[in-house]
Amino acid sequence: MKKIILTVLAAFAVNGAFACTSAIVAAKNTVNGRPLLWKHRDTGEENNKVERTPAQNGNYEYVALYNASDTALVDAWMGYNSTGFAIMNTASYNLKNDKVSYKDMDKEGVLMKRALEVCSSVADFKHFLDTLSRPMLVEANFGVIDTEGNGAYFETNNYTYKEYNLADTKDGILIRTNYSHSGRVDDDGMGYIREQNMKELVVSHLKKKDFTPATFTEDFSRRFYHSLLEKDYTNSGEKWIIDQDFIPRRSSTATTVIEGVKPGENPLLTTMWIGIGYPPCSEIRYVWLGEGGVPEDLRGLGKNGHSELCDTVVARKHKVFSIKRGSGKHYLNLQKLYNAEGTGYSQVMKEKNKKIYKEGYAKLEKRRKELRKKK
To answer: Which of 66, 166, 330, 372 has its CA 20 to 30 A from that of 90?
Structure first.
C-alpha cells in the first residue's frame, strides 16, 4: 500500500508542474471586435520556443509553442493554423476517473498538434474528440476559437468531455485554471485562487469592453494580485514576497494571446502575441504564418533547441529568484520587477512592449491591405 501511495504522489508531483491560467474572450468584449484566446503557461520545462510547420500531407500549416527539448515538435502547447483555428490547454486534476496508468497520460500536446493539423473550427474539434480512440490519455481543459467568433472549453478526460460554449455565457468570457467545472467537486484540482484572481481582475474590463492582447500579457501576466489575501503586491514597495497562487509564478514560461479575426476576414490575419520565458521579465513578439512569420529569436535555433529570447528572459528570472539554498526558490525579489526608480524588469519591458504592440498593429494593418489586394 505504501508503494502505491508513493507512486501516485510521485505522478501527481510531476503532473502538478503543469499548471496554467487561461481565458477565452468574446469579440464583443474587445477593443477591435476580435476574439482572444489566452494562456499563461506554467510548466517544469523552463525553456520554450515557437516553430512553424508548413502545410504537408494534406494537413494545415500552423505555428505553435513547444518545449525547447522537443526537437521533433511532438507536443504543441498552444497554436493556430491557416484556417484561423486556435487551441490551447490547461491541465486538470479533478477529471480522471479510471485506472489508466499515470505513466501513459499527458498526451495533451500530441492531441493539440493533431488538432492543428486537421481542425478548422470549434465544431471540427468537437468531431475530432468524438472520433479519437479511447482512452485519449488526457486530463485537461482544451480552449478553442475559430474565424466565426466561436469559442469553447472542452473539459476532457480519457473517455468523455463536456463542452462549455462562449455563446452561452452571460458576460462573454470563460476562465480556466487547473480544475474542471464538470469534475469532482471535493478538494481535488488546483488553481482555485488563481481563478478567483482572474475573476476579480476582469471585472473592470468587462464593464468597459476594452480587452486587448496587452490586457493579458502586460497586466494579468505581470500582476501579483492575491484574491485570498485581498492584496495587490505589484507596486507595494515590498522587496521579498512568497511565490504562491499569483498568476505569474516561478514555473511560468510564457504568456500567449492568439487574436482571432472577424467573420469574413482572411484567417492569415490571425496573430499570436507572446512573451516567452518568465512573463514578468519578457519582451513581446508577434507571430504570423508564412515564411519568416516566426521571429528568429523565438525559434529553437540555439544550443539544445533553445530560443535566444527565452534564454535572455530566463537569465532575468534567475535574478528575480536569486536564493538557491534551502527553500529560497519560493521567494521572489519583487524589487527586481517593480521599484520606486522605475528600473524593474517589468516596468522597463512594459514600456518597451507598448512600442512593440504599436509596431505589430501597424504591420498587421499593412498585412491586411496586402491580403485584400490578393483577393
So the answer is: 330
- Cell triple for residue 337? 520587477
- Kindly report each contact of residues 302-307 with a partner whose C-beta sits within 8 Å and lies 24 or more positions away, as own/partner: 304/47, 304/68, 304/69, 305/47, 305/49, 305/68, 305/69, 305/70, 305/71, 306/47, 306/49, 306/68, 307/47, 307/48, 307/49, 307/50, 307/68, 307/276
d(CA 255, CA 249): 12
Alpha-carbon gap, residue 146 to 120, rounded angstroms: 7
Residues in the chain: 375
HEC states along 259-285?
ECCCCCCCHHHCEEEEEECCHHHCCEE
- Average pLDDT, whole number, for the chain? 94
pLDDT in tens, 115-126: 999 999 999 999
Residue 341's contacts (CB-CB under 8 Å, 6 or more residues apart) are: none
> Is residue 162 within 8 Å of 176, Cβ to Cβ?
no
The Cα–Cα gap between 224 and 244 comes to 10
Which pairing describes strands 284-287 and 231-232: parallel, antiparallel, or unpaired?
Answer: unpaired
pLDDT of residue 18: 67
Model-level pTM? 0.95
